[in-house]
Design a protein that fits this description.
single chain, 0% strand, elongated
């Protein structure tokens, strides 16, 4: 693994963790998370919209 690949993997880890935090806080507050954060976590935003309650 090159240094560039290692830094890229670490960056992806921070993006995923950050999106998880943002989505969890939005759901706890009863708000809809942004589509970008759902996509970062591999969740289809249209499927998430079908959920009637976020908590």
């Amino acid at each position: 693994m090159t240094k560039r690949n290692a830094f890229s993997a670490i960056g992806d880890l921070f993006i995923t963790f950050g999106s998880a935090v943002v989505v969890s806080r939005a759901v706890e507050a009863g708000r809809k998370p942004r589509a970008r954060h759902l996509n970062d976590l591999g969740i289809d935003p249209r499927a998430f919209d079908k959920i009637s309650r976020y908590y």
